[in-house]
Design goal:
There is one protein chain. The chain has two domains: about 100 residues, no CATH class; about 280 residues, no CATH class. The protein is an all-alpha fold and about 425 residues long. The longest helix is centred in the N-terminal third of the chain and has 35 residues. The two termini are about 20 Å apart. α7 packs across α17 and α8 crosses α13.
């Protein structure tokens, strides 16, 4: 239905360029798109809050959430807006627009792909051995991130994040949320790698969605590196049209980050998570960014990672009360012990894994791999291809073994 509606509205917009009819068609298309995601994803959230505030008893919906609705809704909105802005012509062939909306490799959890970025490839894509090989390599890297790193980190994280918060030690709480910080990065970036790899195998080149966000030194820099397709969507289609930095800056930041949080889920904890980041972005904009540029780099990096790690607490706990209680434990508020046997055992069992994951979350490993290939190159023979094949084969074997032994572990962003 979404594809049909936006197909006809885009044609109407394109046909009536620069006229009032074009603007009306755009507004109607966006309203319908947002209404559909509102009904499927946010209806029960609004009903729950209305019932609580007004003491009513409106019934809840039992309609299932369509897979990938948050992603394909934003994709199709970007399409009709870009047609309105005359940045891309409307697609005359419905099946090609449907292809754009239903590309399975990135439909479920992103990245959010704009039509104008792949319009030429939809019409004339070329599948080459080089691109296909790159796609396989990229897919396997994503598999490593998900199966070997994210799932392993997630198993440890749940030991400390689930259950009775009053019983977790302070060090255990920090260890658990750090493991979740590792899990969510490798889980989501792993899916993006797999989607980019599959797309390349089929002749589509998607833009990068992550750029080592944990090496950032400010919240601004972090959001230029994390979920790039989402942050750039809100920048280009919400923040700048509202006035950007020029007009009502504080209002614009608050709106964008409330929407960013709400996009992630129909729950107050996600809205709180968005407001949390909006607050620090405003602080950096007003004065903190100048301070960060003057202090030593390692201090600005510690600042950023503290902000990110605490932020993931709001992201993890649906219940805001539990999230605040957990943050209290992190900073020693309460009667929780500093450490316990459980923390000691899990920390020492996973210290090597933790160091490995931290290194992989930086460009250090890829730089080291390139340097090794350069050092081994003899007489114009570059062994890097052979090394990549061997490395990929090893990852594939290990991932398959782990998959067989693990229970079902869906990607975290599947729920969005």
């Amino acid at each position: 239905m979404s594809a049909v509606v936006n197909y006809f509205f885009a044609l109407m917009i394109d046909k009536n360029k620069g006229t009032y009819k074009s603007k009306v068609a755009l507004y109607l298309a966006v309203i319908i798109d947002l209404s559909m995601i509102g009904v499927f994803k946010y209806y029960n959230f609004f009903v729950s809050n209305i019932n609580f505030l007004l003491k009513t008893s409106i019934g809840f919906s039992s309609i299932g959430l369509p897979i990938g609705i948050s992603f394909y809704t934003f994709q199709i909105i970007s399409y009709v807006v870009d047609v309105y802005r005359q940045e891309v012509p409307a697609q005359n062939k419905f099946y090609k627009l449907l292809l754009y909306m239903s590309m399975y490799h990135q439909l479920i959890a992103g990245p959010i792909v704009r039509y104008k970025d792949i319009a030429n490839e939809i019409d004339n894509r070329i599948i080459t051995p080089t691109n296909f090989s790159y796609g396989i390599n990229r897919f396997i890297i994503g598999l490593l991130k998900k199966i070997i790193i994210a799932n392993s980190a997630g198993e440890v994280a749940t030991m400390f994040l689930d259950g009775n918060i009053n019983e977790v030690s302070i060090m255990g709480a920090w260890f658990g949320i750090i493991m979740y910080t590792i899990q969510i990065y490798f889980d989501f970036s792993g899916y993006s790698d797999m989607a980019i790899g599959l797309g390349r195998m089929f002749g589509f080149t998607y833009k990068e969605n992550f750029n080592y966000p944990y090496i950032a030194k400010s919240v601004q820099d972090f959001w230029r590196r994390w979920h790039i397709s989402l942050s750039s969507f809100f920048r280009d289609y919400v923040y700048i049209p509202l006035g950007g930095n020029r007009k009502y800056f504080i209002r614009n930041v608050i709106i964008v980050w409330m929407l960013t949080g709400f996009w992630h889920g129909a729950s107050w904890n996600f809205i709180m998570w968005g407001i949390y980041y909006g607050f620090f972005l405003l602080l950096e904009r007003k004065f903190l960014y100048k301070v960060l540029n003057k202090i030593p780099t390692f201090l600005s990096h510690i600042y950023l990672m503290l902000i990110v790690i605490i932020g993931w607490v709001f992201f993890y706990f649906i219940d805001i009360t539990r999230a605040i209680q957990f943050i209290g434990v992190l900073f020693g508020y309460g009667n929780n012990p500093l450490y316990d046997v459980k923390f000691e055992m899990e920390f020492f069992n996973n210290i090597v894994f933790l160091i490995f994951a931290i290194i992989l979350s930086t460009p250090a490993f890829s730089k080291l791999f390139k340097r090794i290939c350069d050092m081994l190159a003899i007489n114009n023979y570059n062994p890097s291809k052979l090394m990549v094949v061997a490395f990929n084969a090893l990852i594939l074997i290990v991932s398959t073994i782990l998959l067989i032994g693990q229970t079902y572990n869906p990607f975290l962003y599947f729920r969005f």
